[in-house]
């Protein structure tokens, strides 16, 4: 697929103002599933499911849990085992530790039945066909199991499919003594 179709520029709000970023929309299987429509015309995964999966992925990335594929040339090899362990312990930041705790809490909340699937799809970005092949599942069954796993993950994070509550909140206004409230020139 040409690069122009998968990479798109977006603007995001940061603490320092708006920033331009490039997003590879073909990278995440969840984003692909959110864009695809089923036979009934609905998205294969709902927005709250996508949000939960991407939050797990963000915490996984912040926690630096992705296995290394190359050597670590940043720290020297120490012959003293105590020194090597002390060096490694100093490299963990509070952000990493907190993110690891959030990942473990989320995976504990979804249970062992769904934890592996969520790690494969959300964090390691494996496709559903690959997962079905690896686990000897029937064709197109991973989609259903993933939807159940994402629902449980969304429930853990407090995301719901629809907002609940009254359609309209009552209008309240605090006025000074003797003041009147008007809407479009009409006094109340």
Tell me the strand order in the biggest sheet: 1-2
Structural class: mainly alpha
Overall average residue pLDDT: 81
- Overall 3D geometry? extended
Low-confidence stretches: 1-5
How far the N terminus sits from the C terminus, by CA atoms, comes to 62 Å
Report the radius of gyration as a whole number of Å: 24 Å
Pattern of helices and strands:
HEEHHHHHHHEE
Strand content: 5-15%
Count of helical regions? 8
The profile of the biggest β sheet is: 2 strands, antiparallel
Helix fraction by DSSP (H/I, runs of at least 4): 40-55%
* Strands, count: 4
Tally the structural domains.
Answer: 1
Molecular structure report:
The chain is mainly α and 188 residues long. The chain has one domain. 48% of the residues lie in helices and 11% in strands. The protein contains eight helices and four strands. It has helices spanning 3-6, 29-35, 47-62, 81-91, 94-110, 112-123, 128-135, 142-157; strands spanning 7-14, 17-24, 182-183, 186-187. The protein has a two-stranded antiparallel ribbon with strand order 1-2. Helix 3 packs across helix 8. The chain is extended, with a radius of gyration of 24 Å. The chain starts with a helix and ends with a strand.
């Amino acid at each position: 697929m040409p690069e122009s179709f998968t990479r798109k520029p977006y603007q995001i709000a940061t603490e320092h103002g708006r920033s331009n970023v490039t997003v590879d929309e073909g990278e995440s299987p969840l984003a692909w599933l959110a864009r695809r429509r089923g036979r009934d015309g609905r998205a294969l995964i709902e927005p709250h499911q996508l949000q939960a999966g991407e939050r797990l992925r963000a915490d996984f990335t912040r926690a630096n849990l992705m296995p290394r594929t190359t050597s670590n040339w940043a720290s020297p090899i120490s012959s003293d085992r105590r020194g090597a362990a002390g060096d490694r312990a100093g490299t963990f930041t509070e952000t990493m530790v907190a993110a690891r705790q959030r990942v473990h809490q989320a995976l504990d909340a979804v249970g062992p039945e769904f934890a592996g699937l969520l790690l494969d799809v959300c964090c390691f970005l494996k496709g559903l066909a690959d997962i079905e092949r690896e686990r000897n599942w029937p064709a197109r069954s991973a989609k259903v199991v993933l939807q159940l796993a994402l629902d449980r993950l969304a429930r853990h994070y407090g995301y719901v499919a629809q907002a609940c509550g009254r359609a309209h909140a009552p209008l309240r206004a605090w006025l000074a003594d003797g003041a009147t409230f008007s809407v479009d020139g009409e006094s109340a």
